[in-house]
């Protein structure tokens, strides 16, 4: 969990510091390594290389590669798109969890926000 947390921290910090290549590269490596340690190598490979997730995996890992070779803005855009394609099955669970948190749940239930959150919370694909 620590590697994944530090990876997210370095990715966020690298974007805050105007897409610093070194921080983004460290964040990418730590995030992927942390994910592999948390769920195991075999399950990580099965998750990333499922037939219906190949497009998402290619965008995500392609973005990691583009950041590592030195084009951070393009790489981060590719990573974000791939991340949303890979993990879109988890978004309904996350939205349901956030709606149960007292202050955040009331914010998500505001009329102009709830319509958008309801669309994000719907998923047609299984994890």
Automatic annotation (TrEMBL):
Transcription regulation among keywords: no
Membrane topology, from the record: Multi-pass membrane protein
Keyword annotations from UniProtKB, A to Z: Golgi apparatus, Membrane, Transmembrane, Transmembrane helix
A GO BP entry: endoplasmic reticulum to Golgi vesicle-mediated transport
Cell compartments where the protein resides: Golgi apparatus membrane
Record keyword GTP-binding present: no
Cellular component, GO annotation: cytosol; endoplasmic reticulum; Golgi membrane
Record Pfam families: Got1 (PF04178)
InterPro entries in the record: Got1, Vesicle_transpt_Got1/SFT2
Transmembrane domains' residue ranges: 6-35, 56-74
Function: May be involved in fusion of ER-derived transport vesicles with the Golgi complex.
Name of the protein in question: Golgi transport 1Ba
Lineage: Eukaryota, Metazoa, Chordata, Craniata, Vertebrata
């Amino acid at each position: 969990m620590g590697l994944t947390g530090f990876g997210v921290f370095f990715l966020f910090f690298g974007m805050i510091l105007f897409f610093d290549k070194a921080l983004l590269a460290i964040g990418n490596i730590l995030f992927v390594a942390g994910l592999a340690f948390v769920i195991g190598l075999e399950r990580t490979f099965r998750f990333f290389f499922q037939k219906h997730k190949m497009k998402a995996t290619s965008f995500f890992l392609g973005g990691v590669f583009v950041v590592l070779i030195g084009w951070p803005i393009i790489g981060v855009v590719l990573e974000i798109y791939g991340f949303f394609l890979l993990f879109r099955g988890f978004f309904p669970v996350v939205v349901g969890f956030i709606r149960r948190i007292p202050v955040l749940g009331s914010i998500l239930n505001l009329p102009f926000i709830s319509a958008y959150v309801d669309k994000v919370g719907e998923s047609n694909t299984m994890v």
